């Protein structure tokens, strides 16, 4: 990547492309991720698809003027149509469809309100799936976006970096309540506030929190943190998708478990999402300006960073 962050720019795994709500049937969007131009669309029957943007014919950008017709994407330049698998289904002229008339299709899923794509520098097939999440008792997502300079590993590492919480977020220092659990592409660290774990002059007033901080693959940090002893439930998800070798698209999503009344639920969601978005914003100045230390100096209270780094290594593949 850059001299500031000497890591391979594009790890392998699932990354957010858009929210589901932003892509209605018939919509066509253009995106740039992983240094590549892409076209995202939703067919009239509701299936989302992501292709390399440039038409296999004469190279028009399918995301600038392309249209959905039924379940096909129509190129704006000469009207060739492409089906969900990327293969050309019809042309306005000529008798034979050349077999190479095929757009490159990306593996795409929709998981709890977010459209995610599989990215591998070697173009391998997906080797794992993102976990399903039963959202029946949860509010719809509230989301926010940022474009920053940074790398997805640095965003994900934030959850394992306990020391910065007091300084950057004004919360108690957290402590792991159990050994980190690693299940392939998932890393789960159960944590709780540990006010007594810091020197007295650094202790703060404020609610003690409990929950878990998880990495779901290289591009999603997934946390469930609530006040200790409450029956509130909340999920905060921060997706980080590389745009190119320096820039990163962040998508922050907050949902809460429904409370007794709609008003109470809405109020909780409003307050919490504002807090969480502000917390992520407070991290941005660090992500944009820090260097990546390949061999960091860590003390005994932050070994979670070392565990995190070992876990994240699996997402790098040689090009
Ligand atoms: S460039 Fe797409 S149909 Fe010609
Ligand atoms: Fe943070």
Describe the structure.
The chain is α+β, with helices and mostly antiparallel strands. It contains 4 helices and 18 strands. The protein folds into 2 domains: 107 residues, Rieske [2Fe-2S] iron-sulphur domain (Rieske Iron-sulfur Protein); 174 residues, Naphthalene 1,2-dioxygenase Alpha Subunit, Chain A, domain 1 (Alpha-Beta Complex). Strands 11, 12, 13, 14, 15, 16, 17 and 18 form an 8-stranded antiparallel β-sheet that branches. The chain has a 4-stranded antiparallel β-sheet with strand order 5-6-7-8, with no helix packed on it. The protein is globular. The mean pLDDT is 95. The site of fe (ii) ion (FE2) has 5 residues, from helix 2.
Chain-wise SSE layout:
Blueprint: E1 13-19, E2 28-33, E3 36-42, E4 48-52, E5 67-69, E6 72-74, E7 81-82, E8 88-90, E9 108-111, E10 114-119, E11 142-149, H1 152-157, H2 164-169, E12 174-176, E13 181-183, E14 186-193, E15 209-216, E16 220-227, E17 234-242, E18 247-256, H3 262-289, H4 304-312
Antiparallel strand pairs: 1-10, 2-3, 3-4, 5-6, 6-7, 7-8, 9-10, 11-18, 12-14, 13-14, 14-15, 15-16, 16-17, 17-18
The structure holds FE2/S2 (inorganic) cluster and fe (ii) ion (FE2).
């Amino acid at each position: 990547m850059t001299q500031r962050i000497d890591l391979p720019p594009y790890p392998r795994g699932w990354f957010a492309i858009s929210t589901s709500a932003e892509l209605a049937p018939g919509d066509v969007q253009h995106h740039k991720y992983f240094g590549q131009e892409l076209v995202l669309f939703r067919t009239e029957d509701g299936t989302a698809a992501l292709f390399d943007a440039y038409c296999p014919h004469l190279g028009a950008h399918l995301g600038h003027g392309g249209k959905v017709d039924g379940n096909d994407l129509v190129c704006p330049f000469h009207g060739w149509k492409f089906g969900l698998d990327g293969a050309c289904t019809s042309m306005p002229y000529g008798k034979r469809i050349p077999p190479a008339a095929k757009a490159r299709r990306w593996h795409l899923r929709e998981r709890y309100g977010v459209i995610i794509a599989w990215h591998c520098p070697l173009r391998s097939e997906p080797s794992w799936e993102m976990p399903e999440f039963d959202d029946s008792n949860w509010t719809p997502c509230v989301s926010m976006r940022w474009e920053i300079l940074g790398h997805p590993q640095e965003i994900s590492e934030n959850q394992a970096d306990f020391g910065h919480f007091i300084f950057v977020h004004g919360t108690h220092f957290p402590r792991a309540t159990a050994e980190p659990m690693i299940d392939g592409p998932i890393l789960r660290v159960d944590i709780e506030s540990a006010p007594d774990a810091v020197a007295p002059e650094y202790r703060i007033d404020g609610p003690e929190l409990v929950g878990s901080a998880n990495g779901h693959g290289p591009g999603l940090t997934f946390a469930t943190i609530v006040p200790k002893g409450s029956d509130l439930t909340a999920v905060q998800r921060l997706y980080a998708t590389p745009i190119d070798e320096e820039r990163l698209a962040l998508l922050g999503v907050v949902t809460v478990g429904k409370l007794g009344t709609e008003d109470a639920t809405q109020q909780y969601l409003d307050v919490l999402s504002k807090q969480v978005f502000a917390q992520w914003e407070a991290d941005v100045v660090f992500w944009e300006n820090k260097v990546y230390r390949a061999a960091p100096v860590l003390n005994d209270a932050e070994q979670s960073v070392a565990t995190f780094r070992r876990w994240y290594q699996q997402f790098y593949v040689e090009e």
